[in-house]
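QA checklist item 7 of 12: single-chain prediction sanity check.
[x] sequence parsed
[x] length recorded as 208
[x] structure emitted
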Amino acid sequence: MNEPLAEVLKFCAWYLERGAHELVICFDNPDDPAIARLAGHPRIRAIPCTAAFWGALDLTPDVAFVTRQNAALTWIYHQYPDGWLLNVDADEYLYLVGRDVADLLAEVPAEKKSLRVRTAERVLTEENPTCAHFRLPMARPVRRAVYGEDAPLFGPRREGLVGHSHGKSFVRSGIRGLRSGNTGRAGCVTMARMSWFWGIRIGPISCI
Protein backbone atom coordinates (compact mmCIF):
# COMPACT_ATOMS: atom_id res chain seq x y z
CA MET A 1 0.00 0.00 0.00
CA ASN A 2 1.18 3.50 -0.75
CA GLU A 3 -1.67 5.89 0.10
CA PRO A 4 -2.26 9.03 2.20
CA LEU A 5 -2.73 8.33 5.90
CA ALA A 6 -6.43 9.23 5.83
CA GLU A 7 -7.07 6.66 3.07
CA VAL A 8 -5.16 3.97 4.96
CA LEU A 9 -7.18 4.57 8.13
CA LYS A 10 -10.47 4.57 6.19
CA PHE A 11 -9.52 1.28 4.53
CA CYS A 12 -8.62 -0.34 7.85
CA ALA A 13 -11.78 0.87 9.58
CA TRP A 14 -13.97 -0.43 6.75
CA TYR A 15 -12.62 -3.98 6.77
CA LEU A 16 -12.42 -4.25 10.55
CA GLU A 17 -16.08 -3.23 10.73
CA ARG A 18 -16.91 -5.87 8.09
CA GLY A 19 -15.52 -8.50 10.47
CA ALA A 20 -12.02 -9.18 9.11
CA HIS A 21 -10.09 -11.17 11.72
CA GLU A 22 -6.79 -9.53 10.75
CA LEU A 23 -5.51 -7.03 8.20
CA VAL A 24 -2.03 -7.59 6.77
CA ILE A 25 -0.76 -4.52 4.92
CA CYS A 26 2.56 -4.36 3.08
CA PHE A 27 3.77 -0.75 2.80
CA ASP A 28 5.84 -0.11 -0.32
CA ASN A 29 7.42 2.86 1.45
CA PRO A 30 9.13 1.37 4.53
CA ASP A 31 8.99 4.83 6.16
CA ASP A 32 5.26 5.31 5.61
CA PRO A 33 3.81 7.25 8.61
CA ALA A 34 0.87 4.85 8.72
CA ILE A 35 3.15 2.09 9.99
CA ALA A 36 3.75 3.86 13.30
CA ARG A 37 0.08 4.87 13.52
CA LEU A 38 -1.07 1.26 13.16
CA ALA A 39 1.63 -0.28 15.35
CA GLY A 40 0.23 -2.16 18.31
CA HIS A 41 -3.27 -2.62 16.89
CA PRO A 42 -4.29 -6.19 17.80
CA ARG A 43 -5.91 -6.90 14.42
CA ILE A 44 -3.55 -5.09 12.03
CA ARG A 45 -0.16 -6.30 10.89
CA ALA A 46 1.74 -3.46 9.18
CA ILE A 47 4.79 -4.69 7.24
CA PRO A 48 7.43 -2.19 6.04
CA CYS A 49 8.78 -3.44 2.70
CA THR A 50 12.46 -2.78 3.34
CA ALA A 51 15.33 -4.00 1.20
CA ALA A 52 15.79 -6.78 3.76
CA PHE A 53 12.15 -7.82 3.38
CA TRP A 54 12.50 -8.09 -0.40
CA GLY A 55 15.86 -9.80 -0.03
CA ALA A 56 14.23 -12.54 2.04
CA LEU A 57 11.95 -13.14 -0.97
CA ASP A 58 14.94 -13.18 -3.37
CA LEU A 59 13.97 -9.79 -4.80
CA THR A 60 15.20 -6.21 -4.71
CA PRO A 61 13.13 -3.01 -4.29
CA ASP A 62 13.67 -2.05 -7.93
CA VAL A 63 12.03 -5.20 -9.34
CA ALA A 64 8.75 -4.60 -11.20
CA PHE A 65 5.86 -3.78 -8.86
CA VAL A 66 3.60 -6.63 -10.01
CA THR A 67 6.40 -9.16 -9.41
CA ARG A 68 6.97 -7.83 -5.90
CA GLN A 69 3.24 -7.69 -5.21
CA ASN A 70 2.71 -11.31 -6.20
CA ALA A 71 5.72 -12.45 -4.18
CA ALA A 72 4.52 -10.60 -1.08
CA LEU A 73 0.99 -11.96 -1.40
CA THR A 74 2.28 -15.52 -1.81
CA TRP A 75 4.46 -15.07 1.27
CA ILE A 76 1.54 -13.73 3.31
CA TYR A 77 -0.73 -16.57 2.19
CA HIS A 78 1.65 -19.22 3.47
CA GLN A 79 2.00 -17.52 6.87
CA TYR A 80 -1.47 -18.73 7.84
CA PRO A 81 -2.36 -22.44 8.12
CA ASP A 82 -6.13 -21.89 8.24
CA GLY A 83 -8.81 -19.32 7.53
CA TRP A 84 -9.30 -17.30 4.34
CA LEU A 85 -7.31 -14.66 2.46
CA LEU A 86 -8.85 -11.81 0.47
CA ASN A 87 -6.39 -9.64 -1.45
CA VAL A 88 -7.74 -6.17 -2.28
CA ASP A 89 -6.30 -2.86 -3.42
CA ALA A 90 -6.54 0.30 -1.34
CA ASP A 91 -9.54 1.57 -3.33
CA GLU A 92 -11.52 -1.67 -3.21
CA TYR A 93 -14.19 -2.08 -0.55
CA LEU A 94 -16.23 -5.19 0.13
CA TYR A 95 -19.87 -4.13 0.44
CA LEU A 96 -22.09 -6.48 2.46
CA VAL A 97 -25.73 -5.95 3.41
CA GLY A 98 -27.06 -7.37 6.67
CA ARG A 99 -24.09 -9.63 7.46
CA ASP A 100 -20.34 -9.63 7.96
CA VAL A 101 -17.46 -11.53 6.37
CA ALA A 102 -17.80 -14.49 8.75
CA ASP A 103 -21.46 -14.93 7.79
CA LEU A 104 -20.54 -14.86 4.12
CA LEU A 105 -17.75 -17.42 4.37
CA ALA A 106 -19.80 -19.74 6.57
CA GLU A 107 -22.10 -20.32 3.60
CA VAL A 108 -19.32 -21.55 1.31
CA PRO A 109 -19.47 -25.35 0.79
CA ALA A 110 -16.58 -27.16 2.46
CA GLU A 111 -15.27 -28.56 -0.83
CA LYS A 112 -14.88 -25.09 -2.36
CA LYS A 113 -11.40 -23.59 -2.09
CA SER A 114 -12.21 -20.05 -3.17
CA LEU A 115 -14.99 -17.52 -3.44
CA ARG A 116 -14.96 -15.04 -6.29
CA VAL A 117 -16.48 -11.62 -5.66
CA ARG A 118 -17.47 -9.78 -8.82
CA THR A 119 -16.77 -6.10 -9.33
CA ALA A 120 -19.23 -3.27 -8.81
CA GLU A 121 -18.38 0.38 -9.38
CA ARG A 122 -20.05 3.12 -7.37
CA VAL A 123 -21.64 5.81 -9.52
CA LEU A 124 -22.28 9.26 -8.05
CA THR A 125 -25.15 11.34 -9.39
CA GLU A 126 -25.69 15.08 -9.18
CA GLU A 127 -29.29 14.58 -8.04
CA ASN A 128 -28.40 12.44 -5.02
CA PRO A 129 -24.63 12.28 -4.42
CA THR A 130 -24.99 10.35 -1.14
CA CYS A 131 -27.06 7.50 -2.60
CA ALA A 132 -25.24 4.25 -3.39
CA HIS A 133 -25.72 3.49 -7.07
CA PHE A 134 -23.61 0.67 -8.51
CA ARG A 135 -22.57 -0.17 -12.06
CA LEU A 136 -22.27 -3.94 -12.59
CA PRO A 137 -20.71 -5.92 -15.45
CA MET A 138 -22.92 -5.78 -18.52
CA ALA A 139 -23.59 -8.09 -21.45
CA ARG A 140 -22.80 -6.67 -24.88
CA PRO A 141 -26.41 -5.67 -25.74
CA VAL A 142 -26.69 -3.81 -22.45
CA ARG A 143 -23.41 -1.98 -23.05
CA ARG A 144 -24.68 -0.86 -26.45
CA ALA A 145 -27.97 0.35 -24.96
CA VAL A 146 -26.21 2.28 -22.17
CA TYR A 147 -23.23 3.77 -23.99
CA GLY A 148 -24.35 3.85 -27.61
CA GLU A 149 -21.43 4.63 -29.93
CA ASP A 150 -19.07 4.82 -26.95
CA ALA A 151 -19.65 1.16 -26.01
CA PRO A 152 -16.27 0.00 -27.46
CA LEU A 153 -14.53 2.18 -24.86
CA PHE A 154 -15.94 -0.03 -22.10
CA GLY A 155 -15.37 -3.51 -23.45
CA PRO A 156 -15.23 -6.30 -24.19
CA ARG A 157 -12.87 -7.27 -21.36
CA ARG A 158 -14.15 -4.58 -18.99
CA GLU A 159 -17.78 -5.57 -19.59
CA GLY A 160 -19.03 -2.00 -19.45
CA LEU A 161 -16.99 -0.93 -16.40
CA VAL A 162 -14.31 1.75 -16.11
CA GLY A 163 -11.95 -0.67 -14.36
CA HIS A 164 -11.55 -4.45 -14.52
CA SER A 165 -14.59 -6.70 -14.21
CA HIS A 166 -13.10 -9.96 -12.91
CA GLY A 167 -13.23 -8.99 -9.22
CA LYS A 168 -11.26 -10.60 -6.40
CA SER A 169 -11.32 -13.94 -4.59
CA PHE A 170 -11.34 -15.20 -1.03
CA VAL A 171 -8.97 -18.19 -0.97
CA ARG A 172 -8.83 -20.86 1.72
CA SER A 173 -5.52 -21.17 3.52
CA GLY A 174 -3.50 -24.36 3.53
CA ILE A 175 -3.34 -25.09 -0.22
CA ARG A 176 0.12 -26.45 -0.94
CA GLY A 177 2.00 -24.88 -3.82
CA LEU A 178 -0.37 -21.94 -4.14
CA ARG A 179 1.15 -18.80 -5.64
CA SER A 180 -0.24 -15.40 -6.45
CA GLY A 181 -0.44 -14.43 -10.11
CA ASN A 182 -1.55 -15.97 -13.37
CA THR A 183 1.74 -17.62 -14.32
CA GLY A 184 0.27 -20.82 -15.70
CA ARG A 185 3.39 -22.78 -14.79
CA ALA A 186 3.12 -26.56 -14.61
CA GLY A 187 2.51 -27.78 -11.08
CA CYS A 188 1.70 -24.31 -9.79
CA VAL A 189 -1.80 -23.54 -8.53
CA THR A 190 -2.44 -19.81 -8.93
CA MET A 191 -4.80 -17.63 -6.93
CA ALA A 192 -5.83 -15.79 -10.07
CA ARG A 193 -7.34 -18.94 -11.57
CA MET A 194 -9.38 -20.10 -8.61
CA SER A 195 -12.98 -18.93 -8.63
CA TRP A 196 -16.40 -19.85 -7.35
CA PHE A 197 -19.00 -17.20 -8.05
CA TRP A 198 -21.09 -15.45 -5.41
CA GLY A 199 -23.50 -12.54 -5.42
CA ILE A 200 -21.60 -10.17 -3.15
CA ARG A 201 -19.86 -7.24 -4.81
CA ILE A 202 -16.52 -5.55 -4.43
CA GLY A 203 -15.30 -2.48 -6.21
CA PRO A 204 -13.71 0.95 -6.07
CA ILE A 205 -16.17 3.00 -4.04
CA SER A 206 -16.13 5.95 -1.71
CA CYS A 207 -16.81 5.46 1.98
CA ILE A 208 -20.55 4.88 2.35
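[x] summary fact logged: The longest strand covers residues 197-204.
[ ] second reviewer sign-off
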